[in-house]
Amino acid sequence: MKKSSTSSKQGSIIKRLLTFTTYMDSTIRRGGAVAAIRNCCFEAAFHDWLLGNSVDILSQLLLPLAGPEEFDEEDTETLPIDLQYLPDDKKREPDPDIRIMLLECLAQVI
């Protein structure tokens, strides 16, 4: 199978999994999605693709870790668009194990 075909199929799966990183109705579903994403982050050959515009994994991994803190305008502008001006009631991921997995994902891709 060609690499581009594989990347396309994995991209579709990764994008579907990323939607569950903020699914607050089920800790098990969130944890499973983050664990699967973490496993994908171990493949160094795909890091550029994961961080690129087609997947944009960085914003999606940071969003559950973000809280309601306010930053000055200069700092806010340096954040990815999805992380700018979050609502005042935004809460961080409540499960410590999921937070650790998110940090492990970030450590792998950065």
Structural topology:
Layout: H1 3-18, H2 27-41, H3 47-51, H4 57-62, H5 73-78, H6 96-109
Helix pairs in contact: 2-6
Could you give a quick summary of the protein structure above?
This protein has helices at 3-18, 27-41, 47-51, 57-62, 73-78, 96-109.
What are the main properties of this structure?
110 residues, mainly alpha, 6 helices, 0% strand
Describe it for me?
With 110 residues, this protein is mainly alpha-helical. The protein is 56% helix and 0% strand. It contains 6 helices and no strands. The chain has helices at 3-18, 27-41, 47-51, 57-62, 73-78, 96-109. Helix 2 (27-41) packs parallel to helix 6. It is globular. The two termini are 28 Å apart. The model has no long low-confidence stretch (mean pLDDT 88).
Helix coverage percent: 55-70%
The quaternary structure here is single chain
Question: How many helices does DSSP assign?
Answer: 6
Task: Provide mean pLDDT, rounded.
Answer: 88
Structural class: mainly alpha
What is the molecular shape? globular
Low-confidence regions: none
Give the H and E element order.
Answer: HHHHHH
Radius of gyration: 14 Å
- Please count the beta strands (DSSP E, at least 2 residues each): 0
Q: Compute the separation of the termini in Å.
A: 28 Å
Reported for the largest beta sheet, the result is: none
| Beta-strand residue percentage | under 5%
